[in-house]
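Bench notes, afternoon.
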Amino acid sequence: MAAKVRMAFILTVALTAIVILAALTPMTAAAATASVENARDARIFELLDDDQNGSVSMMEFKNNQMLVFYILDRNKDLALTADETFLPADVFASIAGADGKIDTLEFLEIVDSAFKQADTNHDELLDRQEFIALLHRVRNR
């Protein structure tokens, strides 16, 4: 009898552990994803901040925007298709020309506009918070 009680207790503990781990797994995965995203965002900011002064000027932004374009342009045809960007379909469509692609001039126009909108304190610099907010807005559109 004691062996059955002990086995039932062990089984209950094991099942409880499994249920707890299953409940925590989605939170852990979400936290891991957020952590990776935050690290990536920080690295992008550091790459754009050429002089490493903690902010990205319009000049730094412009100097690097074509680099960003070329990185996104995986097939190197000087036009971005929807699958080469992380933009939601409706946002991509509103930017893309009649050909359904974003060419370099269209890209430069939206990047300039994005910088101005992101510069919420109008000091012509993007601090880390403004830059991260810009990335979140683009991702969540």
